[in-house]
Specification:
45% helix, binds nicotinamide-adenine-dinucleotide, Rossmann fold, alpha/beta, seven-stranded parallel sheet
């Protein structure tokens, strides 16, 4: 049987690809034959660690710094990406930041704008930079990393939950424009995954959260990356507008 998960010849952009979920997706994509460019903010150590891991297999990942909430930076990143990869087939929007468990009444405009700006507006800006080219070529994949909190909500995280629910809505709406011309737009809504983002919560919050999970533990980044590989590859050709949920059973849709 043909390997339908093969990405040979595909060119992928992964935002927030220096560590955590984005880095695991980058690693999986290059292992399956894709050429990959990532962006991050101030995480040269993460980029070095990622390239060290893949270099043992003769592979590498291109990397640049780019704040996805800044339209000027995103335009420059898209130009740079085309110069190193050529036209892009796959965009994974994984860049994201968590909130600080702050009650809504104490959430200022700056906090709200930062969280929504990176998680939702950043997803839109990066998608927009590549979507037109995919439509012209009648081929492409957009994979947005949302969160199960888009469905579930969480106290102290109104901005984050609103942004992630926005990512799910954006994904559904855009899929109607993409699917007729061969561009499949989907999302992934992970449950809690052991990354620096998760570890920024208090020990008390982490214990409480773990206790709520049917599976009794947090996920690993390697348990999320295969879902992105499915959606990026020929194996996922019939998915459009979906939000897949590797979440240990915490939310059932
Ligand atoms: P992480 O903190 O490990 O990695 C975040 C990555 O995003 C890093 O590469 C960082 O440099 C980059 N980044 C941060 N701000 C950026 C910006 N303004 N512009 C460009 N890049 C930026 O986080 P993670 O846990 O791997 O999260 C990845 C995605 O998964 C996020 O969208 C997050 O909301 C989502 N998510 C995470 C969890 C979890 O429990 N870890 C659960 C559900 C969803």
């Amino acid at each position: 049987m043909k390997n339908t998960f093969d990405l040979t010849g595909r060119r992928a952009v992964i935002t927030g690809g220096s560590r955590g979920i984005g880095a695991a997706i980058a690693e999986s994509f290059v292992e399956h034959g894709a050429q990959v460019a990532i962006c991050h903010v101030g995480d040269e150590d993460g980029v070095r660690a990622l390239n060290q891991r893949v270099s043992s297999r003769g592979l590498s990942v291109h990397a640049a710094s780019c704040d996805v909430s800044d339209p000027v930076a995103v335009t420059a990143f898209a130009q740079w990406t085309r110069s190193v990869l050529g036209e892009v087939d796959i965009v994974v929007n994984s860049a994201g930041v968590g909130g600080g468990d702050r009650p809504f009444s104490e959430t200022g405009d700056d906090d709200w704008d930062r969280i929504v700006g990176i998680n939702l507006r950043g997803t839109m800006l990066v998608t927009r930079a590549f979507f037109g080219g995919m439509v012209e070529r009648n081929h492409g994949r957009v994979i947005n990393i949302a969160s199960q909190l888009a469905y579930k909500g969480a106290p102290g995280l109104a901005h984050y939950c609103a942004a992630k629910a926005g990512v799910v809505g954006f994904t559904r709406a855009l899929s109607y424009e993409g699917a007729p011309v061969g561009v499949m737009v989907n999302a992934i809504a992970p449950g809690p995954v052991d990354t620096e983002l998760l570890r920024s919560h208090s020990a008390q919050w982490l214990d409480m959260k773990k206790g709520q999970l049917p599976i009794g533990r947090f996920g690993t980044v390697d348990e999320i990356a295969p879902t992105a590989l499915l959606l990026a590859s020929d194996a996922g050709a019939f998915y459009s507008g979906q939000t897949l949920s590797p979440n240990g059973g915490d939310v059932m849709l």
